[in-house]
Amino acid sequence: MTVSDRTDVGSRDPAALIRRAGERGNPDFDQHFLVDDRVVDRIPTFLPAESDTSHVLEIGGGPGILTDRLLAVADRVTVIERDPTFADHLREEFAAAREADRLTVIEGDALEVDLPEFSACVSNLPYSASSEIAFRLLPLGKPLVLMFQKEFADRMAAESGSDEYGRLSVSAQHYADVEVVEYVPNTAFDPQPAVQSAIVRLTPRAPDYEVDDETFFLDFVKAIFTQRRKTIRNGIRNTAHISGLDDPAAVVEAADEELLGRRAGNVAPAEFAALAAVAAEYGIDGGDSTANGD
Ligand SMILES: C[S@@+](CC[C@H](N)C(=O)[O-])C[C@H]1O[C@@H](n2cnc3c(N)ncnc32)[C@H](O)[C@@H]1O
To answer: What keywords tag this UniProt record (predicted)?
Structure first.
């Protein structure tokens, strides 16, 4: 790919794109379009250094302002867009890129369509589906730059001990290093959302702890955070029906005493992994535990 193949992308005007799309954003369908050029120009630069941009996925293309900037930095872009009017518009607006096999538009729901093999994902997500979309992408282990509601972004990136730290922080940080790289005011969008937004960089990494059963680990964390004001000891006892533990008393017996005395908000992801390993070993009938008579 040479630079000259990309000269028709990278500088489109957001307002002109919205006009050409022929449909205004509908907040009921999560359609808040970026209209601040400076913000749009920065978004692709937040990909981690050395990211592979051979095939960038965008979820929710809308009028295509971010698509335009992504086509300027990526070899190929695939956009998933649920609204047929915007899907048609994207195909027309970027016809040259489609003809050059640099753009694919998939019309459909990002929670349902098969995802292509992609090397990185950059998106201004539809807010009502942003959590589900993020947790569909995170296990795939690719670099992600995603726009979320500010509060959601802060909770994702929160460190143990902070007020925002919770199940969302542990689950996201299990898959990636999570950084809020920029807060975006609602004036950057048309129509303006009621809330502020934030751009989050998620850099995949293998966790520095072992998790044998990821589903159980995530369920265990979810269960314990339903009792975040209780000690871990009481949380394990009170949430066995949620985490699926048959013998919570055996878990409390076997787990680290100091961790049992803490509250969920002060337990780091690696410490949750250690607790979940004990819970799986001692608390589940038919698990690995010799204590349970295996
Ligand atoms: C916040 S707008 C972002 C539009 C554009 N990328 C921008 O930044 O201006 C979200 C877009 O996602 C689309 N969308 C909403 N729910 C979707 C879903 N479940 N799957 C795919 N696209 C969706 C909307 O139609 C809308 O175009």
So the answer is: Cytoplasm, Methyltransferase, RNA-binding, rRNA processing, S-adenosyl-L-methionine, Transferase
Going by CA atoms, what residue is nearest to atom 7 of ligand 1?
Answer: 33
- Probe residue for ligand 1, chosen from 12, 31, 90, 93 as the CB with the greatest number of ligand atoms within 8 Å: 31
Q: Are 51 and 65 in contact (CB under 8 A)?
A: no
- State what percent of residues in the chain have pLDDT above 70: 95
Which residues contribute to the annotated binding site?
32, 34, 60, 81, 109, 124
**CA 201 to CA 287: how far, in whole Å?**
37
- pLDDT, the chain, mean: 94
50: left (phi over 0), alpha (psi -120 to 50) or beta: left
Domains of the chain by residue range:
3-204, 214-283
Model-level pTM? 0.94
Q: Which residues line ligand 1 (CB under 6 A)?
A: 29-34, 59-62, 65-66, 80-83, 86, 109-111, 124, 126, 129
Which one of 1.10.8, 3.40.1350, 2.30.30, 1.20.1250 gives the CATH number of domain 214-283? Answer: 1.10.8
Residue with more model confidence, 287 or 250: 250
Ligand 1 atom 16: the closest Cα is on which residue? 126
Q: How far apart are CA 219 and CA 154, in angstroms?
A: 22
Distance CA 219, CA 238 (A): 14
The three-class DSSP label of residue 97 is: helix
Atom of ligand 1 nearest to the CA of 40: 8
